[in-house]
Amino acid sequence: MTTIAPPPAADAPTARPALGDRLRRFAPLSPTLAAVAILVVLFVGAELTFGNFITPRNLSALLLDNAYLIMLAVGLTFVILTGGIDLSVGSVMAFTGILGAKMLADGIPVLVVLPAMILGGAAIGALIGALVQYFDVQPFIASLAGLFLARGFAFVVSLSSIRVEDPVVLWLQSTRLRIGDWYLTPTGIIALLVVAIAAAVLRWTRFGRTVYAIGGSEQSARLMGLAVGRTKVIVYLISGVCGGLAGLMLTAYSGAGYPLNGVGTELDAIAAVVIGGTLLAGGQGYVLGSLVGVLVYGGIKSVISFTGADQSWTRIIIGGLLLLFIIVQRLIVARADRR
């Protein structure tokens, strides 16, 4: 007897994911999107109030004035994504800046000075990373030690300001590459290139995935066989390198090195990273979000300058935004824990 097999059943229609599931996929982006929304509202509100705020000149100056802060924020994004913190970046910027100015004043060629500034920042970053990873020192304490160390080195180099007259360093800030009414300086181009490279590294490399994994759960990252120790040292090294580059940018911007440069700048950079959507607990955040956070910070300063109010209001507003974003972060983490 021949058995006739029944015809194959038609494929069941694929169920579309529920709206709640689709929204949860974009939950990690919500703090960054909130920062973008704040930036848009800030600029539109300033334009409606003053009438001449959104101009090529003002927007170009926003990048020009905050290139060094963008650099610090990029390095801190790597560190904070692992669940760490680096309080030394402002002091590293001051140390590398005064070191470069002193070397140039002593007649050392600029081709030697520029690598020395970057290596000086890298050395302090690597030291902090080694303390955190191999001596089990809390990142707050290790980076605080790095803060005092770098600031002390800055005062050892010089107790007073040193003027920079090297044409190569000054060219980084004085040159204007114009496109119509818009312009870019070499420092701004370097800052944007570093942002692009950092974003690509975090998005498409094994190292970037390891950074996120450590921030999500360091123990799980170890169980997966990821290079946790090496990665943690490297992120502090990256932060130190960014601090050295920021020292170069600030020296070019101000035309001088000064041992008291950057006092409190590490807090500005941390605030920009948090406002940009990077969780202080680690494991979630974007370099582009940190760029947005810096632009929010710079935009608030510009608006306050337009109003003629005291710049202390910048601290007050940034403090309020930071508090708001920390509360949002806590809600996101609590919701993830419940799931």
UniProtKB/TrEMBL annotation:
Record keywords, A-Z: Cell membrane, Membrane, Transmembrane, Transmembrane helix
Membrane-spanning residues: 26-46, 66-99, 111-134, 140-162, 182-202, 233-255, 267-300, 312-333
Gene Ontology CC entries for this record: plasma membrane
InterPro entries, per the entry: ABC_transp_permease
Its membrane topology: Multi-pass membrane protein
Principal location: membrane
One Pfam family here: BPD_transp_2
Cellular compartment(s): Cell membrane
Gene Ontology MF annotations: transmembrane transporter activity
Protein name: Monosaccharide ABC transporter membrane protein (CUT2 family)
Lineage: Bacteria, Bacillati, Actinomycetota, Actinomycetes, Micrococcales
